[in-house]
Each structure stands twice: as structure tokens, then as C-alpha cells.
Amino acid sequence: MIDNLLFSSGYDHVLLQQYLVPHLKETKRNPQLRKKGNRVIVITTNAGIQFRDVTKLLAPSMNLRKFGKLFNLEVEKAHFPFSVLKSVNDLAAAGLPHDRASWISDLSSGGSPPSDQEIDQIISEAQALFAASECQTLGSYLSTYLLRDIQVTLQATQKLRIALKELIGLDFMECEKFTISSLSYTAGLKFMERAGRTGQFFPNNTQLYGLLRNGMRGFVTILYTFFYIV
Questions:
Q1: Residues 80-135: pLDDT tens digits?
Q2: d(CA 75, CA 230)
Q3: What is the three-class DSSP state of 203?
Q4: Domain parsing of the chain, residue ranges
Q5: If you write DSSP's letter for every residue of 129-153 in order, what string do you get?
Q6: Which pTM does this prediction carry?
Q7: Backbone φ, ψ for residue 114 (5° rounding)
Q8: CB neighbours of 197 closer than 8 A, spacing ≥ 6?
Q9: What is the pLDDT of residues 2-41, one digit of tens each?
Q10: Which residues lie closer than 8 Å to 204 by C-beta, 6 or more apart?
């Protein structure tokens, strides 16, 4: 089932909207875009494929690098000197830049300037991947970098599915709940169903109430269920 769900960020959705959606229209896949304001949050096709953002199931501070490390994956997110990309012609450059300034980028450092030692480590890892992947240009390395992103996303997402299934008995793919709020609400209903409280929608169990109340979005779920019943 994971093949039918591709995850991406808001930045990736911009590219999908510009390049993938026209192709889907040309091939009669009837793409449908769901937006929140001017931001695309879901792209669906008539074949049942959905493009969503996996970060909606993660903490706000979680990025792809942390996501992979969370599950101790053997493959790690690579580094890329985005600051050197000024035009498409830059992709033809031979090799990777060696100066530290080229590697200080919001996309590669998570928004906080890394130390000289951290930058040297980044450059060393990037050069090793460049050589191991037999890259010749910055463009070929970009392809390797993006492929690594896909591998980390796929493997970490599968691990997340297994972990959630073991913890709360739900698979977000199977129940089609792709946000923290929707998954926590469904988990609460399942809990009350197993407890035999059919028709009792408000979480009057103290443990469940405490879990939702202290959760990042759990209190919103409580208010929603309360006003829905009222």
C-alpha cells in the first residue's frame, strides 16, 4: 500500500504542481488538488494515488534527517550545497565546492549556522557519497541526493507505520488518517470501543483524558468531541 502514497513537503508540492500535475492531466489521470489557503496539501489521481506530507504525522521540529535517525536507519539523508545553485547551468559544474561558505544553507543546516567542524564533516560526507556514487557533476550528485531523500522517507515511514501499529493498534495507511489530530481522535474512539463504552464519545476515562489533555493537539480533540455531542 505504501506505493500508493507518496509524501512530500510544501516545497516539493510546488514542483509537483508545476511539473507533475500537467503530465497527469495529459495522461488522463484526472489530478485533484486540495488546498489550505494557497498551499497544496494533497494531490490525488483517479488511480487512487495520493501525494501527502508525512510531516503532518510528526512533531513540528522533526525534519527528514531526524526522522531517519529516529529509527536508526542505515541510510542517512545526504547534504547538498544549495547556496551555489543560481541557475540550471550550475548543475553542469564538475565536482562539489570545497569552501565552507557554500555549504551554509537553511535547507542543509536546519536554519541554524553549523560550526566549522560540522561543516567540515558535512563536506567530507558529501565528497564520500559523490565518489561512491560515481558522480561527475553537481547535477548527477543532486540526483543521488534526491534519491537518498526518497530512500530515507520510504524506510522511515514504514518504520513509523509498524511502531504506531504496535503502540495504538492503528495503521495510518489502513485507516486513512494522515494527521496527528485525526489519528489521535480515531485512536480515542477505538479505545472506547474496546472498553465497551459504545455511544459514549466523551473521554471520561482519566488516563485517556490526561493523555489527550497533555498532547500537542489532544485538547482540541476533546473540545471537538464535547461540542459535537452538545
A1: 998 898 888 999 999 999 999 999 875 555 556 788 999 999 999 999 999 999 99
A2: 50
A3: coil
A4: 2-52, 64-148, 179-229
A5: HHHHTT--BHHHHHHHHHHHHHHHH
A6: 0.70
A7: -75, 160
A8: none
A9: 333 444 445 577 777 888 899 999 999 999 988 877 778 8
A10: none
